[in-house]
Specification:
The chain is an alpha/beta fold. 34% of the residues lie in helices and 11% in strands. It contains nine helices and six strands; from the N terminus they run ααβαβαβαβαβαβαα. A six-stranded parallel β-sheet has the order 3-2-1-4-5-6, sandwiched between helices. α6 links the parallel β4 and β5. α3 crosses α9. The longest helix has 15 residues. It is globular. The model has no long low-confidence stretch (mean pLDDT 91).
Amino acid sequence: NHHELNGRNWFSDFDVPGRGEVKSIIDRDLDALRAFGIQASVTDAMPEIILSPAEKREAAQSFSDAAVGTGPRIFLGIGGSRSTKRWPATYFAELAKKLIHESNAHIVLATIDIDRPFLNELLPLLNAEKENIFHVHGKTLRETAKVISQCQVYVGNDSGLKHLAVALGLKTYTFFGPEAPLEWHPYALDRHPYAFSENLLCRTESGKHWCSISECQAHLHKCMRDLSVESALPVIKRLLVDVS
């Protein structure tokens, strides 16, 4: 709770630099090292995951067996720790259709059981494009990393799989709603742009700098619904131009 000006420090009597400022989660974690006199910067602590050549071959073969085409592969990150962190299913469907038809893209999904209600809403909207969708379900985190490694760009919610995509070297485009990007997105914006509506009063009405509710009735999920497909599409297309 470094961003809290007052309150008990439960773990240390170390005077945390910048206490009361909102920092990225990585920067807050690094304060633990700094307490021991270790100099550490956020740029030196970016996540990285290395897959073995055998794992990469296995993942490539799974796409080959499924006859996935040669167009760009976009991992669609529909997951979220709560519903308010998910971009609407109708928006995801519209975006996926445009990317399929305008950029010859293939959409890749990796889901778990908690995603089932959202999938039940999303997949019927993409029935006509099902030949361009590669979907795996119930995989382990390592198996999911193999699938993501075969994609060029992550497009989706602020979630654990977004960070997994970054660690695997993908470019990303992230939809932020109830939580501000500063804490959860310490990445270079040329490769990792995001969509976010600034200065929504509903985020701070509970006295915090972010919104923690799991369902948004009062404001009709404005933080996510205001992030349009039309504004996201050109940015994602630019990411696809150079995926090196």
